[in-house]
Design a protein that fits this description.
The complex is a heterodimer of chains A (470) and B (438). By secondary structure, chain A is α+β, with helices and mostly antiparallel strands. Chain A has 10 helices and 22 strands. In chain A, strands 8, 9, 10, 13, 19, 20 and 21 form a 7-stranded mixed sheet that branches. Chain B has 2 domains: 216 residues, PmbA/TldD fold; 206 residues, no CATH class. In chain B, the strands form 3 sheets. In chain B, strands 1, 2, 3, 4, 5, 6 and 7 form a 7-stranded antiparallel sheet that branches. The N and C termini of chain B lie far apart (55 Å). Classes of the chains: A alpha+beta (470), B alpha+beta (438).
Chain lengths: 470, 438
């Protein structure tokens, strides 16, 4: 058990009593305690620009009655502070008359080790790698004008105390290593970005000289972009490469399948359960159980063990992603998808590792079948309007396809599509499913959480490409 | 209640003392506390209440030209001891950077002007509920509205910024925010739109009925949208979107982007980057202004800055570190702009709409399509087709694209500037952008 009550005038027993008292007539709720330590080291413009360390401690007390959520959080773990939060919750839920649901599933499985990645590699070692990154990139190509590289490491300990005193806990490591390089040639500047990460120690990713691969990839993307010409504008066929481009799946359908939007009927998918929402051969899952992945969780932020949830099976909509609140109101069970950025936020149903599974075709077949279109290999961010279903994402590496052949690289452009119909436009699913390198953060209602995505190459019959060339 | 100045000052000086004791040659610290209370409504019923009490401390320690920093939300003295010792230790092991230093003493703010940024009024949750009820009843007047989510937040903050050069100041601020997101439906489509209002003073906040009606009307107008073909067209940016172009401009003239060479506006100082009539100001001392401040996040005094004059770039946004790198003095923009705005144009909103036979009026963009390095811009958009000054029909699933370098030179402004956000723009028209649709 963690030491949340060690330096406090509040004992664990007293906290349990306040929790049980607060949640008496509520349907659900808990005290969520969190202690996170994180470190960031940045190299920029030939220097170590910053080294910083965060120590964040706090609690969030939540009470749920019917559809109403009352939440209060503070940094001070003290008797006075918890009492104040409890009073605040009670004043919102004056007329609560629910029955607390004590049941919560159990599992002994764990998907990452209990380690503190920050302490596992010394500051000097990390600084040395960053300096080597800088030297390596600048010596490799004379056009390199700027290099930014950084390490982000975190260890987050959480504890969930439910009414009656049941306690669930988890310790979550997370690291990320990122390289960004800017090239300048003939007055033109372009950037390339690449990174890796997950819930493991730095050395699991940086064995031998693996950091060089990250540099090479960032440099390759920047070099491609230096030669890029304006992207076309208009509707055309799009081939997506495997791996990270799956943020299309995340934006186009993932968010629309989160329980809250469907309970509230604001998602374009809310009345499509059991219906065909994608081409045959399209299967999409959301999986929190893959070892050491960025989006994996042993338990979610309500204490429910995570699972592999089938969202769409062979084109048919099978499940939404649920937290306890939305599951109860929709008469189903939590899929272990209740997440929050930290103790400052309420739980929402969120994605973990969202993946489209492999099909039978090859990427080659896809490219050959396209007369005029684009081949998109890497993306920056994406965004979706849940209600209208329209979503976008931004290419950071893409090529035109002319008469079945890959042509010149094209400038970064936004692609826009319609979530509910895009999966019906998928006409080929590749046999080359790949996980992303472990760098994704998903934003919803002002909360960012680490996620993963995966997909094989896919061919989409029709999408609008937001270039400038008519 | 938000913590008082006395408490924050004590913590700040405790930290500065510790940093010195552990061997820092100089240091700075920010202690802040913010208490926010939010009530959310959905479909005319209470949905969520949320109280947050956030306390945090940021400490930066220097040993000569070496620097490191920590953040902690645990302000118990025992914990601060451990963290500050660790911070100084890390500082020792961090390589030197010749530009690391505290701000020049003569640039530090000498006085804190009262900018009227704090309203002592406390609005109880019952009153928030009352406001939201009125708002949602108003939003539901039209039967096409099928879902509403509204929110009311009161936020009170206090902070102290102190450094080892003797600077120690801070002040309270408040904000009251009401917002409404509505969903409308017809036979063809389901659409969402929003409206919100933030003010320093409760009494300045928009009436709930008006807010609800605005959100609902804007949403209903978007129903049954069409997709148009790809073409070159004049784009009109609604004020709520137009301010985003100003934010992109601000990122491109930040001293950090300039000194690193990663801005499309590098080396453009004293050159013409906008059309002739364009003036851009950053004014920190607007009374009750949402971006107002007495000094920047390093304690440097802030004066009004004319960033663009008659289309010519006159100033960058400079902090201490990047200023030293560029051999320029900080102009108090560590942490970004304050109240940034385009000065009004010469023609009315109506004349702007009428100025071309066909244009696209954009009310929302999605995606992160602004590239500050190249100036390339490409985003998803929704809006309306405008012909001869009249709104014809809603448009969606399109993208608009261009390059800021060209876009800035083709800007015309209406004369309808209002100070609704921290960054504000009148309605903008940009000639000759490319829309991608069918």
């Amino acid at each position: 058990m963690s030491k949340f009550f060690e330096n406090s005038d509040l004992s664990r027993k007293e906290a349990e009593n306040i929790i049980s008292d607060t949640l008496q007539k509520c349907d659900d709720g808990e005290l969520y305690l969190e202690n996170s330590k994180s470190e960031s080291i940045i190299l920029d413009d030939n220097k170590i620009k910053n080294s910083s360390y965060n120590s964040d401690l706090g609690f969030g007390l939540r009470a749920v009655s019917g559809e109403i959520v009352a939440y209060s959080h503070s940094n001070e773990i003290s008797k006075n502070s918890l009492k104040k939060s409890s009073d605040n919750l009670k004043s919102t839920l004056k007329s609560a008359k629910g029955n607390y649901n004590y049941a919560i599933p159990k599992s002994n499985k764990s998907y990452y080790e209990n380690i503190n990645p920050i302490e596992q590699k010394s500051l000097n070692d990390k600084i040395e790698i960053l300096n080597n990154v800088n030297k390596y990139l600048r010596s490799k190509d004379n056009n390199v004008k700027q290099v930014t590289a950084n390490f982000l490491g975190e260890q987050k300990s959480v504890e969930i105390i439910r009414s009656g005193g049941e306690t669930l806990s988890d310790v979550r490591p997370l690291i990320r290593f990122n390289v960004s390089v800017m090239l300048e040639k003939n007055g033109r500047k372009e950037t390339g970005v690449y990174g890796i990460g997950g819930r493991q120690s730095y050395d699991s990713y940086l064995r031998k000289d693996n950091w060089k691969n990250v540099c090479d990839e960032a440099l390759r993307i920047a070099s491609v972009n230096l030669e890029s010409k304006p992207a076309p504008a208009g509707e055309m066929k799009v081939v997506l490469g495997p791996g990270w481009p799956a943020i299309l799946i995340h934006e186009a359908v993932g968010h629309g399948l989160e329980g809250d939007f469907n309970r509230k009927k604001t998602s374009a998918f809310h009345n499509l359960m059991g219906q065909k929402v994608a081409s045959e051969g399209v299967t999409i899952i959301d999986d929190g159980t893959i070892d050491n992945r960025r989006g994996s969780l042993t338990i979610d932020d309500e204490g429910t063990p995570t699972e592999k949830t089938i969202l769409i099976e062979n084109g048919i909509l099978k499940n939404f992603m649920q937290d306890r609140l939305n599951a109860r109101l929709m008469n189903t069970r939590s899929t272990g998808s209740g997440r929050r950025e930290n103790y400052r936020h309420v739980v929402l149903p969120r994605m973990r590792n969202t993946m489209m599974l492999s099909g039978k075709q090859t990427q080659d077949e896809m490219i050959k079948s396209v007369d005029k279109g684009i081949f998109a290999v890497s993306f920056g961010g994406g965004q979706v309007d849940i209600t209208s279903g329209k979503f976008v994402f931004n290419c950071t590496e893409a090529y035109e396809i002319v008469n079945g052949k890959i042509g010149s690289p094209i400038k970064g452009a936004t692609l826009i599509g319609d979530g509910p119909s895009i999966l019906k436009e998928v006409s080929m699913v590749g046999n080359d499913m790949m996980l992303d390198p472990g760098i994704g953060t998903c934003g919803k209602a002002g909360q960012g959480v680490p996620v993963g995505v995966a997909q094989p190459s896919i061919l989409i019959n029709k999408m609008t490409v937001g270039g400038t060339k008519l | 209640m938000v913590k008082d100045q006395e408490f924050l000052r004590k913590k700040a000086s405790y930290c500065l003392g510790l940093a010195k004791k552990f061997g820092a040659t100089s240091s700075s610290v920010i202690v802040n506390n913010s208490v926010a209370e939010t009530v959310n409504f959905r479909n005319k019923k209470l949905d969520e209440s949320n109280r947050s009490d956030d306390l945090g401390i940021n400490i930066t320690t220097y040993i000569g030209k070496k620097k490191s920093s920590i953040f902690s939300s645990n302000l118990l003295n025992d914990n601060l001891n451990i963290l500050i010792e660790k911070c100084v230790e890390t500082t020792k092991n961090t390589p030197e950077d010749e530009f690391n230093c505290l701000p020049d003493k003569d640039l530090l703010a000498k006085e804190v002007k009262d900018l009227n940024l704090y309203d002592d009024t406390n609005i109880e949750n019952d009153h928030k509920i009352d406001y939201l009820q009125k708002l949602e009843v108003s939003a539901f007047q039209n039967e096409k509205i099928i879902n509403t989510e509204s929110s009311f937040t009161q936020n009170k903050s206090n902070f102290i910024l102190a450094n080892s050069e003797g600077f120690c100041d801070g002040y309270k601020t408040s904000s009251f925010t009401a917002s409404s997101v509505t969903v409308a439906k017809d036979e063809v489509s389901m659409e969402r739109d929003y409206e919100y209002s933030t003010k320093c003073f409760l009494k300045d906040l928009i009436d709930p009925e008006e807010l609800g009606k605005l959100a609902a009307d804007q949403t209903i107008k978007k129903l049954s949208p069409k997709k148009i073909g790809s073409e070159k067209i004049n784009i009109i940016f609604d004020k709520r979107i137009a301010k985003g172009l100003l934010s992109s401009f601000a990122s491109a003239v930040s001293s950090s982007a300039i000194s690193r060479g990663t801005s499309f506006l590098k080396d453009k100082i004293n050159q013409k980057i906008f059309s002739d009539s364009i003036n851009i100001f950053d004014k920190p001392d607007i009374l009750k202004g949402l971006g107002s401040r007495s000094f920047d996040s390093e304690g440097v005094k802030t004066d009004t800055l004319k960033l663009v004059e008659q289309g010519v770039l006159k100033n960058y946004l400079i902090d201490t570190y990047n200023g030293k790198k560029l051999n320029l003095k900080s102009n108090g923009r560590c942490g970004g702009t304050s109240n940034l705005y385009f000065e009004n144009g010469n023609i009315s909103f109506k004349d702007l709409l009428n100025s071309s036979s066909k244009s696209l009026y954009i009310t929302e963009t999605i995606g992160h399509g602004s590239n500050i390095v190249t100036g390339d811009y490409s985003v998803g958009a929704t809006g309306f087709l405008v012909e001869n000054g009249e709104f014809k029909y809603p448009i969606n699933e399109i993208t608009i694209a261009g390059n800021f370098k060209d876009m800035f030179k083709n800007i015309s402004l209406a004369n309808d500037l209002e100070f609704k956000y921290a960054t504000n723009s009148p309605t903008i028209m940009i000639e000759g952008m490319v829309v991608a649709g069918k």
